[in-house]
Amino acid sequence: MTRPSPAAALNGVETGHICDCCNRRIQTGDKAVAYATYYERGGWTLRRIWCGGCGDRAISNGTDGADEVVVEAVYWQGRLVSVNAVDRSRPSD
Ligand SMILES: [Zn+2]
Questions:
Q1: Is residue 76 part of a domain?
Q2: In the chain, how many domains are there?
Q3: Residue 44 near residue 36 (C-beta atoms within 8 A)
Q4: Is residue 11 part of a domain?
Q5: Is residue 64 situated within a structural domain?
Q6: Which parts of the chain sit beneath pLDDT 70?
Q7: For ion ligand 1, residues whose CB falls within 5 Å
Q8: What percent of the chain has pLDDT over 90?
Q9: What is the per-residue pLDDT for 63?
Q10: Contact residues for 45 (Cβ-Cβ < 8 A; gap 6+)
Q11: Residues near 24 by beta carbon (within 8 Å), at least 6 away in sequence
Q12: What distance in angstroms lies between residue 25's CA and the mean position of ligand 1's atoms?
């Protein structure tokens, strides 16, 4: 079964608005960076959210060989919009 594109799956997803790195409040219209992992049951699931100044654009430490993605997006009233994948780590890599 083909997995949905992470950018498409995460577009419009609800997210917190406190940066996981600097605790800054992310405001509507701000750029945000997010990290998600694919789960067989839940699909693409957000794990981390950062403000535009903090986000790590590359996947540095993999988690259990999971399918992971880092996306850039715009935070808009509690959701991510204009999502673009910037790095991806597939289990087979
Ligand atoms: Zn931050």
A1: yes
A2: 1
A3: yes
A4: yes
A5: yes
A6: 1, 61-64, 92-93
A7: 19, 21-22, 24, 51, 54
A8: 73
A9: 61
A10: 36, 37, 38, 39
A11: 18, 51, 53, 54
A12: 8
